[in-house]
Amino acid sequence: MPRRAPGLSQLLDATERLAEIQARRPAIARFEPEEALKAGSQNALFRGHLEGRPAVLKLALGRGAKARTRAARDELTYQYPRMREGQFRVPEPLAFYPGEGVAIMAVVPGTRLDKALAGAPAAGRAALIAQAGGWLAHYAAPRRGASPLRPGFWLTRSQRLIDQLSTGSAVRRTASQLEARLRALAPALDHRPVVKARSHGDFCALNLHVDGAVLYGLDIQNSHRLSLAKDVARFLVCAEMTAPAPDGPWQDGLATADRAALLGTPELAAAMTPEALLPFFIGVELIDRLVNERAHPESRPQIQAAAGRYLAAR
User: What is the pTM for the complete model shown?
Assistant: First the structure.
């Protein structure tokens, strides 16, 4: 019997899991699934209707599913009153069932940002990325403050990721070289005060929808205070993977123009100190992507090229 592709297997398992939940929870059965959009080890996403309204259902899976669903509920119910209108928005929360790992939100209009960036002229690309920077600054504004950074946590996390790679592989060599650069940057950051906030947690173009002058942030999942530089680094690395800039110049391996556009919001630019902070988190994100994007070979050339430029520049 042929093996099912991992993506298909996870979609089928998640679909069965949702059907089992709905069979015993009539309130959740009000959601009528029409399409399984994606599934992984941590969550699955379905599009459908809730009592006639277009909606998406996020099903948290695995360890900590209940806690992650509660965190998503708390974040959206906090942010929605201040981000239901205006230029920067979040989706309307419709229903949450943390005990089952189920969160249901209204569908938002527009185009996913990575698709809008693909093929956009330079000026249009810069404007879209500037919108993203404005969204992040607005989202984080009520709960930002300075506290000491502990780079050792990120070094340990990066090494654990590297340990998943095959010994002697080219990818492992690159990741280990990146980790060595992080260790060189760490002393300048250890216990230095940096701007942290309750922010998105997975801030990238895949989780943003643009509808003209309005930008929506989706799949919000962070329940901790993190350095804003971490979100900025994640966005820039993700943009290089999913909708890469056509050419340089480059800074820390990524497009200088993208970085300038994202940090055009003064509140974000001011949060990128000390000087080594953003390069450190770009390295963290590059390691993360080298390890976790192995299942997506179409992204591999971009991430390896960015890692090579990062190493060459340092």
Answer: 0.91
